[in-house]
Amino acid sequence: MPPGTLVHIGERRREDVTIIVIGYDRDRFEEFACRNPEDAFSCLDRPGVTWINVDGLHDTGIIRALCDHAGIHPLTQEDIAHTGQRPKLEDYGDYLYIVIRMFSFEDGSIRQEQVSIVLGETRVISFQEQRGDVFSPVRERLRQNRGRIRAAGADYLTYALLDALVDAYFPILEELGNRVEALEAMALAEPGSGITEGIYGLKRELRTLRQSIWPLREVVSAFARGDSNLIREPTLVYLRDVYDHAMQVAETVEIYRDTVAGVLELHLSEASRRMNEVIKVLTIIATIFIPLTFIAGVYGMNFAFMPELEQPLGYPAVLLGMLAVALVMLAFFRKRRWI
User: Fold this and answer.
1) pLDDT of 129-177, one tens digit each?
2) 117 vs 20: CA distance, rounded Å
3) 284 in the same domain as 259
4) Which of 30, 183, 193, 276 has the fewest beta carbons under 10 Å from its own?
5) Residue 220 belongs to what domain range?
6) C-alpha dihedral over 168, 169, 174, 179, to 10 degrees?
C-alpha cells in the first residue's frame, strides 16, 4: 500500500475504543470519557494543557479523525496503527512522536503493548492497544494537584508518562530476578528437562525486554538533549533522571541475561556430571564382569575332555576364583580412586 495508509496491524479486538480527555492548568481540571473523537476536539483548543488518551487501535477511523484534527502527519498515523514499531523518537517540528513498549503482568506472564505519544505545544495525545496502563499515578497527581505537574506544560506531562512507563519495568525485573534465583537453586538441586524449558522461557522474556530497553535509552537520551523547542529547560533535568532509570534497567537486564546463561551452563555441566557418574558405575560393573564372563564362557564349552570337569571340588573352586578376581579388581579400582 502507499506510505501513510492507515491499517491496523496487531491483535484484533472487539471492545469499543475509549477516549479519556483531561484538560488542566494551575487552577482548572476537567476529565471525561467519550467514544466519538469529535467530543474531544473542543478541548484541544482550550487554554492550558490537554491530554487525550485513546484505548484501542483497531478502529482506524477514530485515529484518523483525531489525528487529522490535531495536524498529525499520515506517516505518524500509520506508525500508530502498526503495533510492531521499535521504540523511537521522531521530530516533526510542531510535534514530537514517541513510541515505547509498556510491560505488565497478566495471569503470571508478561504482557506487552505499544504506546504512542504525540507531544505538541499544549497537548499530549497517547494511543494504547487496550485498556489498562501504568498511568494511574500520573492521573492521581493531576486530580489532586500534587507536585508541579499542573503548573508545568505538556512537556512535563510527557516526562511524567515516560517516567511511569520506565518505572513499570522495575517490578518486571524483580519478578524475573526471583525466577533466575529459583532456576539457579533448581539447577543445583534437581536438574531435569523442566529446568531447561524454564531457562529458555526466561531467556526469551529477557530477550524481548532487551529489544525494548536498548532503543528506549536512545529515545530518552534524544529527548533529554532538548533539541526541540517543545521541551523547556526545566524539564530537561527530569528527563535526565528518566535516562538514568533506563540505563539502570538496561544494565539489570544484561546482568540477568549473563546470569541465565551461567545457570544454563551450570545445569548442563551438572547434568553431564551426573551422567558421567552413572556411566562410571556402569563401566566399573561391566569391567568386573568381563573376566567373570570369560571364565564362565570357558567352562561352559561342551567339550568331552576337560580335566576340570572331573574334579569333585571344581565347581566351588571356580566360584571362589571368580570371587577372588572380582575382589582384586575392586581393590585395584579403590586404590586408583576410581570408586
Assistant:
1) 888 788 899 999 999 888 888 888 899 999 999 999 999 889 888 888 8
2) 14
3) no
4) 193
5) 18-269
6) 120
